[in-house]
Amino acid sequence: MRIVILFLFTSNFAFAQYWGGQEINASDLSPWVAKSEIEYAGSYHFGESESESDLRVFFSDGCIIGQVLSGYWEESTGTLKANYITLTHIAIDKNGKFTSDQHSGQFIRYKTESGDYIKGLKINNPWSSWIEDSEFEIGARTELKFEDIYSGKYRQASFRKLHREELNQMGKDDLKLMRNEIFARYGYIFKEGGDMDKYFKKQKWYRPEHEEVEQFLTEIERYNVELIKKIE
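== YARHG domain-containing protein ==
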């Protein structure tokens, strides 16, 4: 069974039903039918300003996973925090149709006024409501190396299933760090004064935001957390 992992994160490039303030004509859209599913891998940026989000797509083994990241302002503190929602039963068919329990759409090519084509993903029931009465929203595809998306010493624990053989080569302290790094990437608030609290507060990428993050974990991360526990 294949894995397709879909993530939504913020970035700096976007177009949607309105791109650069101008409305997109549906006639300028055509299906993007890739020769191989791997061609759909990348980051798809949606929205503008506070409504920005990115859908990141990549492939690994075993299952299909999806995740949405959006930002929200916490009223009590006035700070911008990240919120993650896991998409379920995601599929991409041979014609580039994208489906999940939550959102569906089509991988497309958009013809610009200059005649160039931009690859993207059209979502028919957008998660964002930044465009009033929008019928669809399009995310422009950008090239990304997923090894550079995640932070930490053991970032691979968030984008591929780990193997018992490689974990057996690691010490107990490193295994503990690898496991807790998965939670730290979601901004988990560790016990104040504890070893993990002290360690991650020294990491520039770490932002303590949430007291609970279990609901954010992808299937790959859940698998890796349980495997690491067994090795520990």
